[in-house]
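User: Can you help me understand a structure? I only have the sequence.
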Amino acid sequence: MSERYASYRKLKFDWPGERILRVTMDNPGRLNAADAVMHGELVQVWRDIDADPDVGAVMIRGEGDAFSAGGDLDLVEEMTQDFETLTRTWKEARDLVYNLVNCSKPIVSAMEGPAVGAGLVAGLLADISIASRTAKIIDGHTRLGVAAGDHAAIVWPLLCGLAKSKYYLLLCEPVSGEEAERIGLVSLCTEPEELHDKAFEVATKLANGSPSAIRWTKYALNNWLRMAGPTFDSSLALEFMGFNGPDVQEGLNSLREKRRPNFNKKSPL
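Assistant: Let's start by predicting it. Here is the structure, written out as tokens:
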């Protein structure tokens, strides 16, 4: 493995095929929830991949039967108590979205089990997003007590329309992989046992395609996301203002109760 990725602790890397880099989110016993370390690594990795001449396509997945259970609640609680943590995480959340959008390499996500929070940002902003039929996609911001910022305001309305976005973002209703494909939230839905093979198949086609043509087609299409930049920046500010609001502690307590008996199981929510 290249020295470029040697310092990462919560992301694992391997090469399942020629010029295909597989990134695996790995937080054992926490259903790959994004703690402070993983959150920072999910920001940096797209810059490293963009600069890596050996990468023709990227796959991102979660270890085991979960994509990512969302933000680590210890990190969320620290954000409510420490201004430096709050502002650092706010900048990381912003950079994560822009680094994904601006990464020149095509990205394929393979989502199974819970797909929530910072992991879901990568899952839905991937160029080709693939979910297993039994995946459970949830934007949990309003359940926590903050506005649905991060990627939600920038990409959900573009993918599945304003009416569906409002329904799922306001109510925090889970979206199965099957339903996500039906409404256009993801590119493809597969049976669970076919998910990773399909993701590899798509990544192989991208890696074997014309690098210049694919890069600049991605760049042109992502201009729709760049045009939504002011909306994204304001939604993110509204989200992080909420961490000083009255509802977050109640939301934290509720989420802890929901997650506690379910860690190490297939579904945390």
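Now, to help you interpret it: The chain has a mean pLDDT of 91. The beta strands are 11-17, 20-25, 57-62, 68-69, 107-111, 114-116, 128-132, 136-138, 175-176, 188-190. Let me know which part you'd like to focus on.
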